[in-house]
Amino acid sequence: MSDPFRFFLRVRYGECDAQGIVFNARWGDYVDVAVTEYLRALFGTVESAGSIEMRLVKQTLEWRASARYDDVLDCRVSTAKIGTTSFTFATQFRRLADGTDLATAETVYVACDLAGAKQPVSPAQRATLERGAPGVVVDHAGAR
Question: What is the arithmetic mean of pLDDT over 123-143?
Fold first, then answer.
């Protein structure tokens, strides 16, 4: 996807550690918030999310540079892969001010029913996930 969904998030003081950089555990929170906004853009509401119940089964983060208090993060989310019962989101974090590549995350979810049993991704859900939300920008940072 050449023009992914983008979510702007401002780093808050309490998210930084004694070194003055974003604490490593916060990046998982950032992925979760960005993916939630991506799902809202795709399906209109997070609660129904196109009737997908999902469970996180794997998340891999790679850091390239640090983020600091008051940086605005440009979180770019796209659907990377869709299997029979699972789907993977790719999230890239850049510093909005200078475009510095900060981190990437790969997050794998499994579609399931309310009891937790795996279920196939429906054709309608698959089409929506494949389409993504190109060009959509959600700004929680007041950056624009």
Answer: 94
